[in-house]
């Protein structure tokens, strides 16, 4: 499969239609993920919509506040893909930046491959590998509690994924279970953890000089309130340490089933975020780890004490977490809780609870309401408050999309007609210029006599005829003069082989002396003869 397809011109829609839910933009979980964990109730496609030349859109498998996710198929090789749609007029488009990040991370283990980014009508489109369910989905299917062994094995993989991201000079800034997915069933990486959704990733240092970004305060919140670091709550610039701390909160979420700062009430979102941050600061790390292996508390304590530019000890963290299994007499054998579902057959969408279509992961407790918003440069998210558009709104959106497609087709036809007309005009202009070039000499010659001829045309016919004859004689004289000038350039050779300095049609001019000059010449010759006779030489 090609790693990159051409842009805009290669995106088309069969029958000029768009998926009916592409205009749904409810205030939902930002991560629409990339999972094959769809269900029979998902919308199916009957109009064979094609994007990016050869990607066929299938069932809808997710939607969020910034777009919709569809399962798709590469029509060339039949492999499944995930197709993300984002409204082009959204306040802060992010699919293009996400595509660039995928290209930067291309070939990194655990990072899906991005195949295409383009535009179609009102939407930006991103095509990437299709993966399995998210850790949030699996967490829900396993009764909202993971075993210590599963958490350790997952945590080690998460640390490695973030280490690879940091090695490419990027920080993630939105760590949460919804953004970590396992592979598709039957594949070698079926139970391997993958990282998706890089819409909020940011460079923390210059790729060439490795110069770290400066420390700043009073920054807008970026991330998901439940998992973000304490420094992020305080408005401090994020760096690698904040990704590591957010992962620690995810570990405790998996171990405990719920974090102490979930479900807090507040009159508005701002006060709620402040209460969540305050609760995090006041919760002792080892109280959080009570009844759990102490290594998890130690991990969170270490990463919270990192300085702004400090490089995390990724290998040390992995060894610390793996020591938990040693204490339990377990090993990292690749066995996970979700593999025990359905009598050991593993997760099965036909049996397990349907995944949440509005962001991969089951909805959070109903009493936890928050709102996710994204400014142009920053974003704050919360995995709650899911809303649905009515069927009427979806129908209206589809009608608008079809009208837009028709208008674009008409505009393209008009543009082609204008282009053809312009090409014809340019061809005619070139022909005229060529003709003008051919006649330029005659025009230049006639221009010098234009004023005289214009004055002569005012005379009576007899005088004008005389003027024309005079002009022709003048031209003839000029031409003869040019011929004479050219003839002087030749040098003739006389019959005796000596060079004749005079042209073949010209003779030297001999001045005839007058009588006075002739007498003087004779006298001069006589005196000269006498002079030379005296010398004896003549």
TrEMBL record:
Protein species of origin: Saccharomyces cerevisiae x Saccharomyces kudriavzevii (strain VIN7)
Alphabetical keyword list: ATP-binding, Kinase, Nucleotide-binding, Serine/threonine-protein kinase, Transferase
Protein name: non-specific serine/threonine protein kinase
Matches recorded under InterPro entries: CK1_Ser-Thr_kinase, Kinase-like_dom_sf, Prot_kinase_dom, Protein_kinase_ATP_BS, Ser/Thr_kinase_AS
Gene Ontology CC terms, in alphabetical order: plasma membrane
Compositional bias segments (type: Low complexity): 30-43, 391-400, 468-489, 529-538
EC number: 2.7.11.1
Listed PROSITE patterns: PROTEIN_KINASE_ATP (PS00107), PROTEIN_KINASE_DOM (PS50011), PROTEIN_KINASE_ST (PS00108)
Compositional bias (Polar residues): 1-12, 490-521
Pfam families reported in the protein's UniProt record: Pkinase (PF00069)
Transmembrane residue ranges: none
Molecular function, one GO term: protein serine/threonine kinase activity
């Amino acid at each position: 499969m090609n790693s990159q397809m051409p842009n805009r011109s290669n995106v088309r829609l069969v029958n000029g239609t768009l998926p009916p839910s592409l205009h749904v933009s409810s205030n939902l979980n930002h991560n629409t993920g990339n999972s094959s964990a769809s269900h029979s109730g998902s919308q199916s496609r009957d109009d064979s919509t094609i994007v990016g030349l050869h990607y066929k859109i299938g069932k809808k498998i997710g939607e969020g506040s910034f777009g919709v996710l569809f399962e798709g198929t590469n029509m060339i090789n039949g492999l499944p893909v995930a197709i993300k749609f984002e409204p082009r007029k959204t306040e802060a488009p992010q699919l293009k930046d996400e595509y660039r990040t995928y290209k930067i991370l291309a070939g990194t283990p655990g990072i899906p491959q991005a195949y295409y980014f383009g535009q179609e009508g009102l939407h930006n489109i991103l095509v990437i590998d299709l993966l399995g369910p998210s850790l949030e989905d699996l967490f829900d299917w396993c009764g909202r509690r993971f075993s210590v062994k599963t958490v350790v094995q997952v945590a080690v993989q998460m640390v490695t994924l973030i280490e690879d991201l940091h090695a490419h000079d990027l920080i993630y800034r939105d760590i949460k279970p919804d953004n970590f997915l396992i592979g598709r069933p039957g594949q070698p990486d079926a139970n391997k953890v993958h990282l998706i959704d890089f819409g909020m990733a940011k460079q923390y240092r210059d790729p060439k000089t490795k110069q770290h970004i400066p420390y700043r305060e009073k920054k807008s919140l970026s991330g998901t309130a439940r998992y973000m670091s304490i420094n992020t709550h305080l408005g401090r610039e994020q760096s690698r340490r904040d990704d590591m701390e957010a992962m620690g909160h995810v570990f405790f979420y998996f171990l405990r089933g719920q974090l102490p700062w979930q479900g807090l009430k507040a009159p508005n979102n701002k006060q709620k975020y402040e209460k969540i941050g305050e609760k995090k600061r006041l919760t002792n790390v080892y109280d959080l780890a009570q009844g759990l292996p102490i290594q998890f508390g130690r991990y969170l304590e270490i990463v919270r004490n990192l300085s702004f530019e400090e490089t995390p000890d990724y290998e040390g963290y992995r060894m610390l977490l793996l020591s938990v299994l040693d204490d339990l007499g377990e090993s990292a054998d690749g066995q996970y809780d979700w593999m025990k579902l359905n009598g050991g057959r593993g997760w099965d969408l036909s049996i397990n609870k349907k995944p949440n279509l509005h962001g991969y992961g089951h909805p959070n407790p109903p009493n936890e309401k928050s709102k996710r918003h994204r400014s142009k440069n920053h974003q704050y998210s919360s995995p709650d408050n899911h809303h649905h558009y009515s069927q009427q709104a979806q129908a209206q959106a589809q009608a608008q999309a079809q009208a837009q497609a028709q208008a674009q087709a008409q505009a393209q036809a008009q543009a082609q007609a204008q282009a053809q007309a312009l090409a014809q005009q340019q061809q005619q202009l070139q022909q005229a210029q060529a003709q003008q070039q051919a006649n330029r000499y005659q025009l230049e010659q006639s221009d010098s006599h234009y004023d005289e001829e214009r004055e002569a045309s005012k005379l009576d016919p007899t005088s004008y005829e005389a003027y024309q004859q005079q002009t022709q004689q003048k031209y003839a004289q000029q031409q003869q003069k040019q011929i004479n000038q050219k003839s002087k350039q030749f040098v003739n050779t006389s019959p005796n082989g000596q060079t004749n300095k005079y042209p073949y049609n010209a003779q030297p001019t001999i001045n005839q002396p007058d009588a006075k000059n002739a007498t003087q010449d004779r006298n001069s010759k006589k005196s000269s003869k006498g002079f030379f006779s005296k010398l004896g030489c003549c």
